[in-house]
Amino acid sequence: MDQKMKKIQVSNKKVKDCEASIPIAYGNVAFWLGKKASEYQSHRWTVYVRGAANEDLGVAVKRVVFQLHSSFNNPTRVVEYPPFELTECGWGEFEIAITLYFHSDVCDKPLSLYHHLKLYPEDDSGPLSTKKPVVVESYDEIVFSEPSDAFVARVQNHPAVNVPRLSSGAHLSSSVSVENVEKRKKGDTKDSPLVHWFTNFSEADELLKLAAARQQVQAHIAKLRRQLTMIDGPSQPLKPTFD
């Protein structure tokens, strides 16, 4: 017992002046099941937490708890392994509490997220479609200040975690073996049947969107300047007046 406690204490040594971050996406994909579906089972939906670029969050997240509406049987759903997702059928929209629990070398406090389940499109004028789902996702980053050296050692080359590359002379503890993190089932969502509908939160994609938005703003400013010139006419130099 003493050896186990000592091992955990050593592996949780903090890395000073260091931050580790995990970009995540969470939300839901909902399919309308058609006119023949039951009134109370009109949609099949999946709520989830995933890596922003579909990486395996199991390297840091131990389990995820989804708290559904009280009308569901067993509304507290625990997902012990990645991918961290839950599929159900229903007809109503409600808020889902999503609680992330981390491995012992990552963080001892859970993180709570909240997502409002969306089944129906914002534009009510168009007909419902069984082929195109309603997709609502949020992007966030989980930041760990001064993470444990065991965690930093484990994720040096892991795509889900952004962590500074440490110098070759830096000493890190060996990886935690208590939970056999590396032996867990791999849980990236790159092969998910829903991946086609996921939002692309990659940095390159965001940069392209920002560049396109900047060009639109610049074009709009140029258009306004032309309109002002047409209204006011070309500016004339002031002529001096003499008495």
Automatic annotation (TrEMBL):
<dbReference type="InterPro" id="IPR038704">
    <property type="entry name" value="YEAST_sf"/>
</dbReference>
<keyword id="KW-0539">Nucleus</keyword>
<keyword id="KW-0804">Transcription</keyword>
<dbReference type="GO" id="GO:0005634">
    <property type="term" value="C:nucleus"/>
</dbReference>
<dbReference type="GO" id="GO:0006355">
    <property type="term" value="P:regulation of DNA-templated transcription"/>
</dbReference>
<dbReference type="Pfam" id="PF03366">
    <property type="entry name" value="YEATS"/>
</dbReference>
<keyword id="KW-0805">Transcription regulation</keyword>
<dbReference type="InterPro" id="IPR005033">
    <property type="entry name" value="YEATS"/>
</dbReference>
<protein>
    <recommendedName>
        <fullName>YEATS domain-containing protein</fullName>
    </recommendedName>
</protein>
<feature type="domain" description="YEATS">
    <location>
        <begin position="14"/>
        <end position="158"/>
    </location>
</feature>
<dbReference type="InterPro" id="IPR055129">
    <property type="entry name" value="YEATS_dom"/>
</dbReference>
